[in-house]
Design brief:
Strand order of the largest sheet: 1-5-6-7
Number of helices: 2
Helix content: 10-25%
Number of domains: 1
Shape: globular
Radius of gyration: 12 Å
Largest sheet: 4 strands, mixed
Structural class: mainly beta
Order of helices and strands: EEEEHEEEHE
Length: 94
């Protein structure tokens, strides 16, 4: 069964390219314990239908999907076209 988790945090690299900036995504389990995934692991989890991730802003949920840019896989929110702005605005993972 696919797990569905809200992404609340990201870790960013120092790269300027938005498709390469996020290195990890994270959030909190229902019991309050934190979870954190590397982008490579998150993409595998999405591809294998093991996890679904989403962000929520002002009560609006938007799914996190993976995409490819110049042969590089990255994650973004479904509503953002090519720019993963919603994810880049999240706080840093603890």
């Amino acid at each position: 069964m696919t797990k569905r988790e809200r992404s609340r945090y990201v870790n960013k690299t120092d790269r300027k390219n938005p498709h390469e900036r996020i290195s990890h995504v994270g959030g909190a389990n229902p019991d309050g314990t934190p979870w954190k995934r590397s982008i490579d692991q998150a993409i595998r989890d999405i591809e294998n239908n093991e996890w679904e991730f989403y962000v929520e802003e002002n009560g609006r949920r938007v799914d996190v999907v993976w995409a490819t840019h110049d042969g590089y896989k990255y994650i973004k929110t479904a509503a953002d076209d090519i720019h993963p702005n919603n994810l880049l605005l999240l706080a840093e993972c603890p």
